[in-house]
Amino acid sequence: MRIDLHTHSTASDGTDSPAELVRNAAAAGLDVVALTDHDTTRGHAAAIAALPAGLTLVTGAELSCRLDGVGLHMLAYLFDAAEPELAAERELVRDDRVPRARAMVGKLQELGVPVTWDQVARIAGDGSVGRPHVAEALVELGVVPDVSGAFTPEWLANGGRAYVDKHELDPFEAIRLVKAAGGVTVLAHPLAVKRGEVVPEDALARLAEAGLDGIEVDHMDHDEPTRARLRGLSKELGLLATGSSDYHGSRKTCALGEYTTDPEIYGEITRRATGAFPVPGAGGPA
Asked: pTM score, two decimals?
């Protein structure tokens, strides 16, 4: 089985619609794909409706969190999307995205970049606006060569010249909320230092004690020594070790299935979940 547990659609900051994403996942030879848009489950229904036969969809979300001033992302799988407390927190984060993006545009304009809110809104479309959309505007203007080039201290990286904070969950609270909604939590790309500051390893131990289920080990932003270190940490802390592409369509260079999760780990995730169940494809519309 080929299992990719971290992808994004146009419901947040990917370039594939949810329907296109599941069709592309099947074409890439995946057996299981998780749709984990940022702080939203809005793409799930469309993905399920288009799900090809032979592909299983894991519903999820990537929750924006902050610990001791450091941003981190929590992958939440197979939770009850209608559970009111977790739904309310996701809404708070989403509601903060527009004023935050507008503030980043304002900072960029102060730095002499001729970016406009209309440009960023056009790029975001119906998705939850975020830094990748602002980054793409910088690419369009020729300020940076690609989206990754915008995530530097000069521009949009954490603490960068045009960075703006947003409402984010405490990760311990995120774990509690996801568990209460019957879901499973995996810390996304925990040592992706190229993205900016990361939480110290002792924080991973504290999160594990609080009920964190796993950590994303195999990821494009982890080099081989980092993966080896995380694999060792997962064993020390009793955490599940996952692998995922973090696919964003054409917005990033990674391909669907570039990194995958061991079927036994996937099986354990599904066994722990009680809020929702993986959806087997019945053959959606072409």
From this structure: 0.88
Tell me the backbone φ, ψ of residue 279, rounded to 5 degrees. -105, 115
Taking a C-beta distance cutoff of 8 angstroms, is the pair 195, 188 a contact?
no
CA torsion sign for 83, 84, 89, 93 is: positive
* 217 Cβ contact list (under 8 Å, min separation 6): 227, 230, 231, 234, 241, 242, 243
Confidence of residue 285 (pLDDT cuts 50, 70, 90): low
Strands (E), 68-144: 70-77
Cα–Cα distance, 42 to 81 (Å, whole number): 10
Single-letter code of the amino acid located at 218:
D
When pLDDT is averaged across residues 103-117 and rounded to a whole number, the result is 97
Nearest 5°: CA angle at 59, between 151 and 25?
A: 70
Half-sphere exposure of 146 (CA within 13 A, CB side): 5
Which SS3 state, helix, strand or coil, does residue 68 take? coil
Tell me which amino acid residue 53 is.
Answer: A
Whether 286 shows a pLDDT value over 60: the answer reads no
DSSP 125-138: TTS---HHHHHHHH
